Amino acid sequence: MTRRATVAAISAVTLLLLGCSAGARTADRPAPAPTTADATTTTTTTATELLRSGTEFVDRTSFRSDVDIAGQLTTLTHTDNVNKRADSTIAAFGRVTEIRMIDNEVYLKTELDLPGAGREWMKLDPARVPSDFALSFAPGRNDPGGSARLINAIVSACADGPHITGTIDLTRVGAGNGITVRPGPDGFPDSARRTAFSAMLDADGRLVGFSIAAADGMPSATLRYSDFGAPVDVVRPQGAVAAPDALYPQLGLSG
Fold first, then answer.
1. CB atoms closer than 10 angstroms to residue 238
2. What is the mean pLDDT of each run of 10 residues along the chain (255 residues)?
3. Beta pairing, strands 63-69 & 195-201
4. What is the pTM of this model?
5. Other Cβ atoms within 10 Å of 124 Cβ, number
6. How many CA atoms lie within 13 A of 60 on its CB side?
7. Angstrom distances, CA of residue 224 to CA of 69, 194, 210, 218
8. How far apart (Å, rounded) are the C-alpha atoms in residues 210 and 52?
9. Are 224 and 65 in contact (CB under 8 A)?
């Protein structure tokens, strides 16, 4: 994590993990991404459409997603949006947090020292979970990798078979599931608007990798998808207690 910018892997509770990190500067809206020449625009359009098509599996089958931020923060999530099952393990700051989702039930256990909350399994009230905590099986909010936001922030791209390379505007990635980029007190470095990325599609056209290069104080970030169609069996934790009132204000980016 840097003073200039904080990059976070956000898979549900990772939002909680970063509640005390550098806050976003909200006084100014980020400048628009640089425009590209007509030939590049055509190439970029084709490449981004391949990426969008490559994420259609999110609503159709089960999958595993892994996020790694400079080797310091990692998430591993198994998701089955069709049958509404998911589990996630987040490791950061030497502590582990686990989440289990079954239909509309959400369970959480964390090793973090959260005021007013213990370290046993807790059952959350979905109606009290902040919107930016992003726990959902609903289309458009059900990808723990956050691939749509990454694709929408692409400035330029070129596809060479299953390999796609180009630049991404990190100021446009925003917050949500998966990789989230937040400016520090000094805002974003200028280079953040054109940061190199690479992506990979498998033989079936599915997105299996998306990597953002480290540059100018910004850490590297990687997203991987795998285990398509594998069963996702999630067990309700025994003895889970109702989450205390003190927990909910600590969830989400505003926590």
1. 6
2. 44 38 32 47 89 98 95 94 96 92 95 91 91 81 93 96 96 86 82 95 98 87 97 96 94 63
3. unpaired
4. 0.85
5. 21
6. 7
7. 12, 22, 6, 20
8. 12
9. yes
